[in-house]
Amino acid sequence: MSASTSAPANSAPVAHNALPPPSTSSAARSSRIAPHSHIKGLGLSPEGFANLDTAGFIGQNNAREACGVVVDLVKSRKFSGRALLLAGAPGTGKTALALAISHELGAKVPFCPMVGSEVYSTEVKKTEVLAEVFRRAIGLRIKETKEVYEGEVTELTPSESENPLSGYGKTVSHVIVGLKTVKGTKQLRLDPSIYEAILKEKIVVGDVIYVEANTGAVKRVGRSDAYASSYDLESETYVPLPKGDVHKRKELVQDVTLGDLDAANARPQGGQDIMSVMGSLVKSGRTEVTDKLRREVNKVVKSYVDQGVAEVVPGVVFIDEVHMLDIECFTYLNALLESPMAPTVIFATNRGNALVRGTTDVISPHGIPVDLLDRCLIVKTDSYTREQVSKVVQLRANVEGLKFGDGVLDKLAGEGEKSSLRYALQLLTPASILASLAGRTQIDIDDISEMNELFLDAKTSASMISESGAAFGS
Ligand SMILES: Nc1ncnc2c1ncn2[C@@H]1O[C@H](COP(=O)(O)OP(=O)(O)OP(=O)(O)O)[C@@H](O)[C@H]1O
Ligand SMILES: [Mg+2]
């Protein structure tokens, strides 16, 4: 009897694994990056000059060239212990520059943006928030050659048998999986625990999968492109039929971040996917990411790197509105910058001289204490000309698939010059909604004028309030 209860009990933790691995709030991240989707890089010539408006970047030549130098320094590992500070008025492309730098550093480089004020929370210590962002910005590429069975699934038949130990129902005794490659086919008879993994990964006939020979871990690579059809979901990835034998040695590459590893080790789940395996690097009963746990994870990671199994990919931490941090955070940042595995750090601010938060009398440039400022290379962003605003607006319109009627671009450029590039860009979406409500496919000049009456730009709003300030005051 005990055996019959132990069988489902054994499989229970596997099913429990259906919990997704800890995510790094990627949804929040992509929404923050979306307005910059036209930025593909710094757009510099091989000599490092920004004489053309390429890679989605318009003007801002000095800043782009300076950022190019920083990229070179980072690539030649001469930027450690330092940081880049982007200083300039709102809407002058500071966030866009930071993103472009991370693009230039490589496709799989983690980019972790945060806003200074994110450190203030009642649950988590300020320094803890910073430490976590820094860990998420260090990528780890793990390479392993493993014995696998890989191919397109041609058959998936669970074989049921009477459960000999209880009178009720049937259990899956094994599962027959047929795999096909260009070279041949093979039929595997697999353990029922693998069947659960197959169900979990939602694998069906026609998918390309591989099964690790030693662990039995199953991974779906994608849908075989023989099954590609026009009405399939766009999110599906199609892959060619694998070459070679079904049974072979394969190099597997997995990208994780130190932040992922910390989180996984703090909540070990058991199971077969890579995050669960990586989640049991360190044997700990802890449920919280502590400095000790991080040190232990570091130790294991270091040994992986020494053995050539893993490669560290330093990413980019971007702290916007850095003047919102306080003295405690700044002091901690000094320490983080010094740590051996530090990512590239970029700050942005639109403040001039300001009080350093958390002090009563320390006034410092950009609200950053001088000892940290000393480590920064400072790059200034300039405001845009009418012509440049018009080019950026046109770029965004192309990305968002919007069309302009006569004179619209000129009008928007004028608005941008008068207030800011940001304001001109912000008028785009509501104006397009107005146009589509009126049944037009292109934005007309009236839409812009109407939006202008409904909404105020920052400068107009401020001046209106100060004019009627007496009324507000009394
Ligand atoms: N030189 C440029 N070329 C193309 N697009 C740009 C350029 N500068 C800014 N943009 C775009 O304009 C918008 C506003 O720029 P961004 O958010 O980078 O400004 P910011 O300096 O970070 O402003 P804030 O201080 O308010 O955070 C974004 O959509 C950005 O992609
Ligand atoms: Mg910004």
Characterize the structure shown.
The protein is 39% helix and 23% strand. The longest helix has 17 residues, at 421-437. The protein has helices at residues 2-16, 26-33, 61-75, 94-105, 126-136, 192-200, 258-266, 274-278, 291-306, 327-338, 370-373, 386-400, 408-418, 421-437, 445-454, 458-467, 469-473; strands at residues 83-87, 111-115, 138-162, 170-180, 185-190, 207-212, 218-224, 238-239, 247-257, 310-314, 316-320, 344-349, 353-355, 363-365, 376-380, 403-404, 442-443. Residues 1-29 have low confidence and may be disordered. Strand 4 and strand 5 form a beta hairpin. Strands 3, 4, 5, 6, 7, 8, 9 and 10 form an eight-stranded mixed sheet that branches. Strands 2-11-12-1-15 form a five-stranded parallel sheet, sandwiched between helices. A two-stranded antiparallel sheet has the order 13-14. The protein is globular, with a radius of gyration of 28 Å. It has three domains: 61-137 and 315-380, 3-Layer(aba) Sandwich (Rossmann fold), CATH 3.40.50.300; 140-308, OB fold (Dihydrolipoamide Acetyltransferase, E2P) (Beta Barrel), CATH 2.40.50.360; 386-473, Helicase, Ruva Protein, domain 3 (Orthogonal Bundle), CATH 1.10.8. Residues 94-95, 320, 348 line the site of magnesium ion.
